[in-house]
Amino acid sequence: QVQLVESGGGLVQAGGSLRLSCTASGRTFNRNFMGWFRQAPGREREFVATISWSNDRIRYVDSVQGRFTISRDNAKNTVYLQMNNLKPEDTAVYYCAAISRPWIIPTTRVGDYDYWGQGTQVTVSS
After folding, report:
1. 83 near 68, Cβ under 8 Å?
2. H or E stretch including 59?
3. What pLDDT digit, counting tens, does each position of 10-26 carry?
């Protein structure tokens, strides 16, 4: 059983920053993609960012490009999402996700990810 535990969510004003962390435990396979998704009330879960084991294959959704940075520390089995210049439209529950087996491309599809964290709330006020 793989568990992903997230932290770092909270309430910030527009223009502020947050850093989300997600630590994997259990039968983890580190040489994979880990990503962040988010889900706002009444909306489907959407892709935010993903990163490969070696940190060289990264993708972002267009709306966060230049504001968010995904990174990972494999020694700690942890992936991060640094979120700068937050906007009210970034408000959502943010989920950490991982793929259970080797992957070639940085997939953005929810269905391709096998493990999910519990979600952490990010609220950005105007």
Report:
1. yes
2. strand 58-60
3. 999 999 999 999 999 88
Cα distance between residue 113 and residue 118, in whole Å = 14
CA nearest neighbour of 48 among 56, 58, 9: 58
What gap in Å lies between CA 100 and CA 32, rounded to an integer?
A: 7
Q: Distance between CA 74 and CA 71 in Å, rounded? A: 10
CB atoms within 10 A of CB 27: 10
Torsion of CA 63, 59, 35, 30, to 10 degrees: -160
Residue where the block lists tokens 């568990």: 3
How does pLDDT run across 52-100, given as a tens digit for each residue?
A: 988 889 999 999 999 999 999 988 989 999 999 999 999 999 999 999 8
